[in-house]
Amino acid sequence: MLFTALDDLAAEISLTPLQALGIPVAIVGAIFLSVGTQFQHRGVGDFKGGDQRGAKLGGTALARLLKNPAWVVGTLLLGLAIVLQLGALALAPLIVVQPLGAVALVVTAILNSRLAGIKLDRLTIRAIVTCLVGIGLFVTVAAIFAIERPIQDRQLLTVLSLLVVALVGLGIGWWTWRARANAIFYIVAAGVLYGFVVTLSKIVINRIISSNFDWLTIVCGVALLVAMLIGSYAVQLAHASGPPDLVIAGLTVVDPLVAVLIGVTVLGEAAATPPWAIMAFAAAGALAVWGVLQLARHHPQIRTPLAPEEQND
User: How far, in Å, are 147, 267, 277, 289 from residue 257 at the CA level?
Assistant: First the structure.
């Protein structure tokens, strides 16, 4: 009876063994993302501190970062994380691998507490477990029902149009509140743009695999680079305005939400998902988001003021 039930469940799983390989690849990429973020934050140490509004990184500051070994190492690790993420996207549907980026938050919380010599308390551990359970449930349901299909021109144009709207909206928001912008603003901006970067990467990979490489694919690649550059700059400003835990916490909420919403509503990766599974998606996603927000709220390094010697790093 048990083996029959397991066989029936296996028959329902939509991922092939090759597609399932995208899950561990995405997890390893998330670990590199976490470690790279730690190094980058150390590189932007001149701006480290509390809620610094209106942080700026001009040409001189950027040139100084390029000479900072910690920042360069962090950037290289983030580049490797991007390569692994693209590999995961090439193997599996977007809604399966993208939420796994939340693993970076867990690694960051633990690594950051070790480096700062701060013990994780009960609230922090509960938030980490909640995040892992939510992501685990979300990916499990996605692995069973997510489907991947060739991406049509209409879908590509829809994503590009949404990106233009996002860039205009974020640009207006930054111009209006640039003197008061804090880490949350830059994290949300970067998360939205990175969500589009992931989606556009998936589209380019999908069209190359399906031998549908044309001028629209090139436009998509250019838009991807623009979103990545602006998003990367927003991340540096977020590092200049707040602690790395907050940066990763925000990105692991906003980035997957944007990418998964586009994957579900525009790319149709959840088209074969029954209503009860959609509710399970929503519940698991809400659980993971709640865990991330609780971790961002209760992590000791975020609640504990930095020592004077840390502020002068």
Answer: 18, 14, 17, 9
Query: Model confidence over 116-127: pLDDT tens digits?
Result: 677 778 887 888
Q: In this structure, which amino acid lies at residue 308? A: P
Report the C-alpha gap between 30 and 106 in whole angstroms. Answer: 10
pLDDT in tens, 83-110: 888 888 888 887 788 777 777 777 877 7
What value, to the nearest 5°, has the Cα angle with vertex 234 and ends 232 and 235? 65
Classify 231 in phi/psi space as left (phi over 0), alpha (psi -120 to 50) or beta. alpha
Q: What is the DSSP string of 125-176?
A: HHHHHHHHHHHHHHHHHHHHH----PPPHHHHHHHHHHHHHHHHHHHHHHHH
CA distance 24 to 39: 23
Q: What distances in angstroms separate CA 161 from CA 30, 200, 262, one per listed residue?
A: 29, 12, 12
Q: What is the pTM of this model?
A: 0.73
Q: Between the CA of residue 49 and those of 18, 46, 241, what are the distances in Å?
A: 44, 9, 7
